[in-house]
Protein: EFMT2 methyltransferase
Organism: Notiomystis cincta
Amino acid sequence: LYPLLFPPDSSWDAAYERELQTFQDIGDAGEIWFGEESMVRIIRWLEKHKVPLDSSVLDIGTGNGVLLVELAKSGYVNLTGIDYSPSAIQLSEKIREKEGMSNIKLKVEDFLAPSAELSGFDICIDKGTFDAISLDPSDAEGKRKLYVGSLLRALKPEGFFLITSCNWTKEELLNEFREGFEILEELPTPKFCFGGRIGNSVTALVFQRK
């Protein structure tokens, strides 16, 4: 795998402040983690499985909030995005306003120490946040366990968790989420060939909370 290089914790706010300024200057929403195909993959899965449009959806580490905007355009009405970076939430609020998506809720939240109200969601989505936590040089293993605990509290029993990762293989993710979750489906992602072997640079899985 070719790991995506995430900035250290201290750099996230600075990165989103730059994107916020760029959006204010020229209307560019900034980086879409894993590209637009990752958003299409998620929305297609929800539509294929006829997930009700009023299902409560939590976007963990929403960044610029573009995924939530696309979900809203697809008809979903109960959308929440969280990010621990205030600049990211500011940016996503600006984009929400520009798109006229007033039904999208946005909050500054640290998913590793979530507020009590962050619970009862039908769907949780992660595109790169678990990856970033996994690369934290300060007790990454402990933080991954905190993440799983937070996810168990945030998601309803039998709720769905859709994760996109470029740092973890399917087998590794199955191990990380073995407590309280079962795998439902692996979603197709682009493949690459290196040294005669074919592999995936991105892993996308759907889990269901037990």
